[in-house]
Amino acid sequence: MSTRMSKRMPTRSESAKCVLVIPARRHSTRLPDKLLLCAGGKTVLQHTYEAACQASLPDFILIATDDDEIAAKARRFGAEVVMTSRDCPSGTDRVAEAIQHCPAAELIVNLQGDEPEISPEAIDGLVKSLAGNPSAAIATLATPIRDRDQLDDPSCVKVVFDRQGRALYFSRSVIPHPREWDDSLLVDSQFYQHIGVYAYRRKLLLELAALEPGRTEKIEKLEQLRVLEHGETILVTEIDEATRGIDTAEDYAAFVNRRRAG
Hints:
Layout: H1 12-15, E1 18-24, E2 38-39, E3 42-43, H2 44-53, E4 60-65, H3 68-76, E5 80-83, H4 91-98, E6 107-110, H5 120-131, E7 138-144, H6 148-152, E8 158-161, E9 167-171, H7 184-187, E10 192-201, H8 202-208, H9 215-220, H10 224-229, E11 234-238, H11 249-261
Parallel strand pairs: 1-4, 1-6, 4-5, 7-11
Antiparallel strand pairs: 2-3, 6-10, 7-10, 8-9
């Protein structure tokens, strides 16, 4: 009988090259405990997790939280969970802390836990975009704006990008700003809403928190501008429709109605 010990096989988290992380914070200002709201026997977080599982390119999906109840419920529906610090200032910082458990991960997707209707195709498109462009550090999503009120709403973040899909600027203002307004600008998809789902290269994700906030970031209060000001490339992948995140009680009620109708 051999006394030589066999090598320990790496776990999925240790060997995964592309990891999707769902940062799950307990408290929300506009809709408290929204991730634990339960429709049809499933929480918002579970719906988001199951939607993410439909994507084909992530090798591993991880929920990152600092809350014991969220962790317990996530494990109950079969998710892998990593506990992170309560002091993480943002979801991005929580994702960066979580991937310390995934040493082989080179591409990391950051999907917020309140996106139960995220399209698997959008996630895969994001990963393909970043994987196919070695010079880029981040990829994100955008969708055409077809409503004037939405265009003028500062809570709707706009993005402009070049012909290669590289972001030029993000703003709460209307960009590009028409010198003369024409309703056909909305019909012809001249304006794009930024969708806050990201794919990062590992190096940039780990360095992001240490980068000094830029001048435009401080004005607009948009973290992605820090990346542009430091000379990194953000790729923009266009999708047909905006994801329907849940921020308010009205958003949740509409989601429940859509689930029942479906």
